[in-house]
Queue: 2 jobs
Job 1
Amino acid sequence: MRILRSLLPALWLAAVLAVVPARMRAAENGEIVSVTKREFLARGLDRKGLDLLMEKNGKIYIVASPGDLAALFAARVPFSRETDRFFPFDQTGISPSGGLNGAYHSTLELETDLRVLERDHPQMAKVVELGETLEKRKIYALKISNNVSLEENEPAVLLVGCHHAREWISVEVPFLFGKYLLENYAGSPEIQNLVNRSEVWIVPIVNPDGLEYTIHVYRYWRKNRRFNADGSYGVDVNRNYAYQWGYDNVGSSPEPASDVYRGTAPFSEPETDAVRRLFLSRNFRAMISFHSFAQDILYPWGYVNAPTPKEAELDAIARTMSGLIAAVRGTVYAYGRAAGLLYTTNGDTVDWVFGVSGIPGFTIELPPVDVDHGGFFNDEAAIGAIFGENLPAMLYLTDYAIQHPSAPGGRAREWARRLFSPRRLGFIGRIDKVP
Amino acid sequence: MPRFLLRIFLPALILLASHPAAAQLVVGQYEDEAPLRTWNTFGIPSAPSIGLGGAQFAKAWDSSVSLVNPALLVSLPRYSVTLTGAWAWASMFKYSLVNTGVVSSAGNLTAGSLGVEFGGLSLRSGGWAFSASAGILENYGRPGIGLQDSAQTYSLDMSQSGFLRDYHFAAARRITKNFSAGLGVTYVTGRRLRSILETYAVQGGRITITDDKSENESGVFLNGGIAWEPTGRLTAALVFRSSYIKKADARSALRYQAPTGDTDIRIDASARNEYRQPWIFGTGVCYRVSDAWTVAADMAFFGWSRYSAAFFEEPLNRQFRNVLKAAAGVEFLPAATLFGRPGRVPLRLGLSYDPQPMAVPRSAYVSVSFGAGLQISSIAVDLSAIVGRERGSGNSLTAGKVALTFTYIFDR
């Protein structure tokens, strides 16, 4: 049994990698293939006029047309398909038409694309308005499930992005995951298996007001657009969740001008309130909050550098996800307890999710790894690759949620549903302890 | 996010003043595309008109009248040439990244411009009159921002500049003895540039972030008017300017350079921006009380509720309302002997009320103007100033202009 358990990530990886190239196999534009240098020279391929890409680790990489592939087959030249190593995701599927923020989504572009997905997959995709921001923008979620219009008690997974306005890549990864599930459902039994047994909820832009400000005014804006009492702007919506909100002034700040200002009260912001209401309304079994940058997978606690009761489980999941990500193209995502690996944060999404429900929740800090390689900037051409390397991890966590449909968190969720109703109970203040 | 970045960016948040606001991001008057001083640009009034608060729908001094009411060209001398230079300024509080969250100022910041604003000529032959002119219709300048911490690890520079120039031609016809009509066409072209440069030091180098946006703008509109003189003392006028789309070939370049990581990331974009400018309708009267005294008043309707802006393929959120702008003034034109020659020394006083189109906050400039001049033989020189104070935004913005107009009349 232990052996089987240790093999599970590897088996999962194999299954995932079988899914990822499905689109590529159908491509009619040929493939990138590799041939060992020895074979390459022995077969005289250097004289065949092939489109050579590079030589690495004793292999020659070739951009092979369908005709080239046929010729290689006919000549019985042993080769390996490598297309997926270079293009883990078909970027032609990225729809933003190149507005002010290029291939990244604006709020309007995202709404349009979500509506297109809903229109094209009416049985499986539904756009849900979660709330409205201070500047009257809608916060949208995309619900993906078979029989999407039915309220089924399936295990749900929540993927959210763009708590922080300047982290543009965090919009794209969860959005593309939804798009991937919908577009590959018909042709992939693996995807069908996931979608039929779960609900995937995706909120690509939690903070649309901030995002628009980064597009139009100042690229490095982080918070939402709350006009604070002291004349400053913005609340860090990833410090505004209730669990251990304001635990100390290191993991968040009481100063409105601070980039990590936690707001005047837990869930004081419409963005966090929207996520709260969604989370407490469904049977969520796992979640990821995407951020950038650092290439980290973080699990609770963030507010204090101490283990949760599920440290081992969270660490194992994070380790598996990190391994799956690295397997795609070698990108290393460090993993660990948030407060230990990065820095302390209080009132953040993942602490709250774990605190109220006990389900595995992760912050994934997407690439790049540091400011030398772009900081909050990612090349547009890298969007597909970053999504592609995160895809196996997202698929894995979705499957994990399905495999753990009634973890102890179920009871906690009911507790939380009753406890975290600030409006009903007139409760506003710090929450010290949640069962 | 690494902590050191927080340390680097926090100095940029220089919060000095508390300031009330009705909603979240209410920039108010100075959205990026807003002209300096006022949204309600209609014509380029010369100094005599400015002296009367800008009133000029029913009273002509020179060929600049053609931009608002070409019908009055028939009342000008046979040939005239006019040149206006102006120093204009405006103060603002919220614009771009200033006082909207990134950098804050203790008070209003002021932008200004100095230069030749209008040049035009007119000619009249028989019942016909014509004019041709060129000028600067709108100015998009903003106060520049330059910040640097004492350790020189961080810097932020922001600038915006630009003009909309106009090239105008008009014809007018005296249809009856006391009724005339005119029509003009104007081609506008201009450029608007905005640049943000941010740098911060990291070990082994300096990271640079640039955000440049530019627009090359153009558009064509018509304007026209009629003038009716029921008596020798009274002139009444109706004027219009057509709605038009100011089109702009726009480019954006966002760039991140980190030599320490050999990183150079660019996000380039181009688009055809469009700004739908409103219809303007106006009416004006001018009454000559005596040979020396004249009063004039204008009222103009700006249909801003139909204003729209498409910016890089997305609509900009501009909740505008229609506004009525009013101006009135009095001119005293005593006869005098100047340098031994008969002449006149005009003195002018005026008021204007200029509401801005934003629905929130409701805001308007109330301005006073005054002017004086010399008219000797074929030469007229006028100097006027208008100074306005805004109410409604809570920021007590100010705007003003000093204009000097030189007119040479070939055949008085």
Job 2
Amino acid sequence: MKILTKRNGIIALIIFAFSFPYIAQNDYYLHMLTLSFIWAIAVYGINLLSGYTGYLSLAHAGFFAIGAYSLGLLTVKAGMNFWLALVCACLITCAIGFLIGLIALRTKEHFFAIYTLCVGYIIYLVIDKWEGLTEGVRGLIGIPAPGNIGPIAFDTAASQYYLVLIFLLAVILIVYRIIRSLTGRTYMAIRNSEDLAQTIGISTMKNKLTAFVLSTFFAGLAGALYASFIRFIGPDIGSTAIMFDLLMYLLVGGIGTLSGPLVGTLLLVILSQNLQFLQEYRMLIFGPLLTLIIIFYPRGIAGAFFDWRRKRKDNDELSRVRGEMHIKAEEG
Amino acid sequence: MNLLIETKNLTKRFGGLAAVNNVDFTIEKGRINAIIGPNGAGKSTFFNLISGFHRPTSGTVLFKGIDITKLPANEIAGLGISRTFQTTSLFDQSTVLDNVIVGHRLRTKSNLVDAILRTKRLKREEAACRDKAMEVLDIVGLTASADRMVSSISQEEKKRTAIALALATEPEIIFLDEPAAGINPDETEGLTELIKKLNRSGLTVCLIEHKMHMIMNLADHIMVLNYGEKIAEGTPKEIRGNDAVIKAYLGGSASA
């Protein structure tokens, strides 16, 4: 019996994540982890589209902001119940994502990236300038924390941590199921060669649009959770700086891998917090680190790990075969 | 006569250049057809027009009498028309089997909701796709290589994988764009056998090829294109004796 199986490892990680508030007893760590889980949800969204379907979107900070502002406006200005507002925020993000996807997905590769970069910036500008609705640079204050579910209240750092953790696990489970299914294979076929995908009968536009809308859903969900966690939002959450942070988490963790978004986000958020004393000079560390990872490990930390494991397995296989040949030679 | 594909006055212009000009061509069910011609004669463009990659400037393409000229490529594949590309565009970082499984996707119906809920339909269809992939890998003779990475197999095996992928779509006719390009004579022989085998099992084949020896042995019916126009059509014997063809090839390789 092997104890160190992948399954047991995942169970251990989940148990650790659930017992973390009892182990750490430190609200600062909980706050940091909760925040990185929220970012990770958005990164999973970007990964589904950019990593598995092959369309690098730079508009997802915009969708994150749309989710955040939808929740903020619906609860603060319309006085809507938190959970209803959460559902609406995701739906609004998807609806806008659908319309933008219809146009954006007519472009490919770097044209798509440039187009979505512009879309993201326009979303930021709209939020920044439409003061009548969004309060502009003053930001939206007094967003309520998640409402109670029966006896469960979300007023402590630990309870919010659990809430976000459950959302994150659900998102990972959904992404896992998608990429392991025929739908995921379809997305990957589009990523590998859109022409080939079409010749084997895949409606590329329909599938790309589904992947796009789903990825905006995750970004919107993350945004809505962010708004209720931080309780204050400003237009900056939709800025290109946030977009490139998210992209960096994905690239370092491993684009097109299941664990990459979580690994990258946790690592960089924690690293960035611990290097606070360096202020903006942190970028002197992140810049070269990112460049080196892109050059030597295009599929990030997770990708590098899987490549290493595969290589080791292949070597084992090779030495086993050699060993057998050796025995045969001796017998002969 | 049992016509599978019929093109009428098929024309494609890129700017002022007529890549395919007024080509009438018919493919009968159950035969091996070939399209030959010098480089730049419009052979690949002709394939692209039939498989829906390019919209023709004028003319029509009929499949079993139905006009498919304006259908998108994926719907044409759904009707039972499959093709391979000159440069095999397989995914290197994945196994042979994984590359082929998605080929049967068009015959399945499960969607995103099935994927998230892992429904019975999804499980059934996944099994069907896997079975189909193993079946076509067996046909092309790659069962033993199913779990190998595409990056580690030979050029000839990649060609076979591409054919397997096309077969997984359950086509009635398969278009092969230079299936033997870049592989050695022995392997070409093997590939010729494979194409014959596919044809014997009832599949109609249409191929573009430069290796004359292979074509002359294989094809029942040959069309010769030059500068986008059909200059000859007939059996290998007729083509070999055709003056226009010999002239187009400068009296060279056509008789090789």
